[in-house]
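Section 3.1: Structural characterization of target chains.
Under the original work plan, the team committed to producing a structural model for every single-chain target entering the pipeline before any wet-lab resources were allocated. The record below documents one such target. The sequence was received from the expression subgroup and is listed exactly as submitted; it comprises 108 residues.
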Amino acid sequence: MPEVERRRTDTAAHERLDQLERRFGAMEVEIQTNTRITQEIRAHTDEMYELFDGARNGFRMIGSLGNFGLKTIELGGKIAKPLIWIVALFGAILAYFKSGNFTLPPWH
């Protein structure tokens, strides 16, 4: 009788080992599929990173140009005030001479 019991136990153990092998085989297939999907996602993520990195650098460049423009306008404002006074003075002198209401000084 122990011989029969031993065969049943061996057969049950072999069946359980076969079940475990099938489960591990299925898990290996799922892990390979998961690895492939993860690699695809990483490739797309790298493309998105490159896109956002390029956009970030573009915004930095635009910001730098904006700062340059503001400094130029600021400098232009500093130059414009005295320049307006000089142009206005020459305009007034020119208008005075063109009006014909002037006389030359006697020492001339």
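The two ends are 150 Å apart (CA to CA).
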